[in-house]
Amino acid sequence: MRRRSISRQTNNVELFPFLSVLVCTIGTLVLLIIVASSQILSSQSEVAIIARGEDGNNQSKNPHYIECREDGIIIHPSQEFVSNQDITQPGSGLTKLIVQVSSRKEQEYVIVAVRPNGFKVFEQVRTLLEQADIDIGFEPIDQDWKLKFQDNTLS
Fold first, then answer.
1. How far apart are CA 135 and CA 129, in angstroms?
2. Which of 20, 84, 94, 155 has the highest CB neighbour number within 10 Å of its CB?
3. Running DSSP on this structure, what letter comes out for residue 61?
4. What band does 154 get if pLDDT is binned at 50, 70 and 90?
5. Those residues with Cβ within 8 angstroms of residue 109's Cβ, 6 or more apart along the chain or in another chain
6. Angle in degrees, CA 41, 43, 48, rounded to 5
7. d(CA 71, CA 123)
């Protein structure tokens, strides 16, 4: 008697097309995440400087704002520019601000926003403010950020 051979057919399932679709879908999602996050980061080029302490309160003083750049300072919100050469001059905007704040040390102080290229100017400004015994705060900011100041005057 002869044995019958049973032929077994094996079905091979090819997964390559499925994996190709899966890789393309994941790649598309990663690309969407990169584009969305880069748009979010580029839209945050405006920063608000808010005068608050660590506890979230204003410290009961009115702030004055100065922005230190490479070529000088800008006194905010009036946008008055004072060049490097005029910082220590007796009639400059900074000198007037120092005199104003010095007469009201208990009610006012100065916040200095420092650009990366304005650190040398910040050192000059800080020295002048410390000599006048004025309270100061400072915040390093990116070169491309636009500044927006919140009105924190006390009633």
1. 8
2. 94
3. S
4. very low
5. 59, 61, 62, 63, 64, 101, 134, 135, 136, 137
6. 100
7. 13
pLDDT tens profile 45-80: 666 676 666 666 656 788 889 999 988 998 888 888
For 138, the 3-state DSSP assignment is strand
Closest by Cα among 131, 139, 54, 118 to 88:
131
Could you state, in order of their start, the residue ranges of all structural domains in the chain?
15-44, 50-149
Model-wide pTM > 0.85? no
pLDDT for residue 36 is more than 80 = yes
Class of domain 50-149 (CATH, top level): alpha beta
Fill in the amino acid letter for 73. Answer: I
Start-to-end CA span in the chain (Å): 111
